[in-house]
Amino acid sequence: MGPGAARPVTAVAPPDPVAEWGDTANPLTTDRLVVRVMRPHDIPTFAAYRNDPDVARHQLWDLPYTDDDAHGDLDDQADRSDVVAGRWTQLAIEHDGEVIGDVALHLDATGKVAEIGFTLAREHWGHGYATEAAGAVLADLVDRVGVIRVIGELDPPNTASARVLERIGLRHEVTTKKSFFWRGEWTDNTTYSTTAEDWCEWRRLQATPVDEVELVEITSENQEAYAGLAAHEGQRRLVAPMLGNYGDALFPPEEQCVPLVPVLRGIAADTEPAGFLMYAAANETVPEPYLWRLLVDAKHQGRGIGRMALDLLATALASEGHRVLMVSFVDDRGGPKEFYLRSGFELTGTMNGDEVEARRRLK
User: Within a domain: residue 1?
Assistant: First the structure.
């Protein structure tokens, strides 16, 4: 689990400690974790989880991964108290005193561009530890070390790690075709990135409560602003792009030979375009309103905007006399099932093609 391991870097002059930028922040502490420089006594644990085929699936190292391999990766930092320019540093992730994984961090020769990766022991997947640890490291890089750019590289099928990078404020930058030679073949490579300025703005938004969410009519005056909204790259296999939404509204599909009637609404958060929804109005073939599309822009996710927009829609539909709002979605890893269940929907037990159907009862 985690972005692809360290890419080869060009040799540079002997590095100076990062301590020149300020006092060491290690260990970093979060609500549940301690993140610190790995030491030789961590080698048995480090080697054990790296030798797990499930852990290594999307990583660069070959199996078996032995204690000798771990020495080769960690001996260079045995006396290091902090990250250094021009080198990789492995940072241990501790939970309740146990090493459960690591954050790999590289600073370029200038100390201004960083690359991060992360790995967790398989038994600790799915608890948010990678997000918590990598987020703390990223904040330290921006706030203390003073980096201007951070990247994360990964194997494109590694969607779990892509979601972690998105959750800590990085955005998909590029996927290059056949650009990396890995395990005997040329493979694709995905890069996520952020600048310090963009990340600080993202952090500000995450820390700023939303005072007001509105559902606004899409008009010729605002359609372009809403057309620019986009979900995270990792969500695009499940969330239609805005161009597709507008296209479906212009040329709606039919239900029992009767075209659906699309109703488009922009989602404004404190007057700023932040999302979009479209529902099919009830007609002779669609007895209850059907939530057709819902998108919250990547930079506004995690602020409760989608839930508030659904509450507004439910209130409006109830005032028109409707009793139920229907939705269907792909029940896949990284999909919206938990979001809808938290937003008052319940599964009906019915499949709509390859999608799971759910309903929200309206008051």
Answer: no
